């Protein structure tokens, strides 16, 4: 495993900084009690100034730990929880407090992303609650697989969910992520029933997620929910490739190029044709 002598600070320039083993000295029993209480979480980093992770300008808390293994994951160092920095809710809240006035002025807020934040759902809910207590707008960026861990009261702490739907086709989903898409789709339905807003995120990868019929099914699913106010089609890129190499992981997409403009436009159009606002 790749190791580093430098101890990165909580704040990072971007989530594309490779971070490993930062929580490896935390005893297993402490990890378990942290997960149970939510008093401590494991964060890859905090970044500031994001304009692509929810409305306005945002502070993003990137959590460590993910149960999926997407073949196009840009941040595989966030798969392992012990790669993250152990951070108490108090410390994360203090960090956020520094930015709260600026975030309001810039119509932004806090986004919790990952990794998969709901691997640490109690910590996430505590941090979202603290943010709401400061009057900060809250966004959860999630693959939705563990959505059923959130109570209805927990959902009220989230102003907006960025729901990452990889594909509605269950077989293709298993191929892309290693896991079933049923829980993600169910979480979308539950958010719709509770009238909680969703922005859908769709990663467009040539030859993997660009099948028009498949995208049409995803678009129809999203439109039928009735609470998807925006769709972001995110073009695949190779910025995370070096992480796969450094971590000694088997990266299968070396020869895949980012989608051409025409493919991007075609995909956005499919979502728009379903009646959705898409970019
Ligand atoms: S859900 Fe996100 S963090 Fe997890 S493997 Fe997939 S792309 Fe990576």
Question: Can you give keywords for this protein?
Answer:
single chain, 279 residues, alpha/beta, 8-stranded mixed β-sheet, 8 strands, disordered N terminus, binds iron/sulfur cluster
Describe the structure.
The protein has helices spanning 28-37, 89-97, 100-105, 121-133, 152-155, 170-177, 182-193, 212-225, 241-246, 261-273, and strands at residues 40-50, 58-63, 85-88, 109-113, 137-142, 160-164, 198-204, 228-235. It has 279 residues and is α/β, with parallel strands linked by helices. Strands 3-1-2-4-5-6-7-8 form an 8-stranded mixed β-sheet. The longest helix is centred in the last third of the chain and has 14 residues, at 212-225. The termini are far apart.
Brief write-up:
The chain is α/β, with parallel strands linked by helices. The chain has ten helices and eight strands.
Widest β-sheet, arrangement of strands: 3-1-2-4-5-6-7-8
Strand portion: 15-25%
Radius of gyration: 18 Å
- SS-based structural class? alpha/beta
- Report the principal-axis shape: globular
- Tally the helices: 10
- SSE string: HEEEHHEHEHEHHEHEHH
Query: Main β-sheet, in a few words?
Result: 8 strands, mixed
Overall pLDDT metric: 94
Distance separating the two termini: 38 Å
How much helical structure, as a percent, in the residues? 25-40%
Note poorly predicted spans. Answer: 1-5
Which small-molecule ligands are present, each listed once?
Answer: iron/sulfur cluster
Topology, number of strands: 8
